[in-house]
Amino acid sequence: MSQRVLIILLSLALGAVSGAFGYSLIAQKRRAVELSIARAEGRAEAEKAVAAELEALKPVVFSKVANSESKPGGVQFGYEYVKPKKPELEPFYTMAHDGDLLRKLPEVHAIDGMLMLPKPIKYVTAECDEVNAFYSPERGEVVMCYETMQTLLERGQEMAKSNGEGEGYAQRYLDANVRFIVLHETGHALINLLEIPITGREEDAVDQLATTLMQRFAGMDESTGVVTENLRMASNWFLARSTGEYNLDAYADQHALGEQRYFNLQCLLYGSDPARYLSIVTDGDLPEARAKGCPEEARRISRSWLRLLLPYVAPKFEMTEEKANRLFEQRKRDRERNAGIPYVR
């Protein structure tokens, strides 16, 4: 059975059992894993048995998904903006609530309703009594704290003043980092909900996912230059939170050191297009020794996350890995074309 056929069957089966029969998504996933193991180990009888189960579902599935528009979509996200008690946080509540900030993050908007999840992810802004952002498995919530937004804006203002940046830089710094942080926590949510296998440090994996999503699903009016600036601002935040002096607790922490996260992101950015981002190396933001392996590292990470998530794409959006990559490239070309089109205000 080819990878393409397997992905199609898995997507259709997951959509059908989740939407029509109410069977457990996790149980179906485990059956899919059993099929993969049986194929890898050459156990023909086991593979045949599981394939027969999927084949038995086909008449029901295709009666429900006869055309693209009738195919079931994925689980929709939820959004909430909690009013803070502290007056100094009120402007950030207003910013988030009135602008529907979380729903309009391009990357979140792009994947909203695309995946078959056992339960929705709810995106929340709230007062937390600390600078923080987190995913709560118990509540299924990705939470962005107003205190973090306040600190990010202040950091952006400091940088604008010291570097002579133009008007609006501080707001762009805030927006870019909110996007990265929310996507980072979304990665934790997906790993938890879908039981995605991660063999390394989870914090590194979700940094990689956030970077990949910002490169793949940026707004259609955002040029590659804008995407690059957003990611460079996000990497700056890693350094802003680093002291350069560490104790054993810092080395033992589940997060990599800020400097390491900074260079990891520079590597993914450079590796995605070495010719375009050569200045990252020549300006000294990424050592040449690390840069040599970055193109392969960037390809491997992007490919790995794509393969991990494809089996959970809803039937309405089902696609092969090859088609997904073609769509990403077309989306990139469209963004570049749209960014240069003038218009009248």
Automatic annotation (TrEMBL):
<dbReference type="Pfam" id="PF14247">
    <property type="entry name" value="DUF4344"/>
</dbReference>
<dbReference type="InterPro" id="IPR025644">
    <property type="entry name" value="DUF4344"/>
</dbReference>
<protein>
    <recommendedName>
        <fullName>Metallopeptidase</fullName>
    </recommendedName>
</protein>
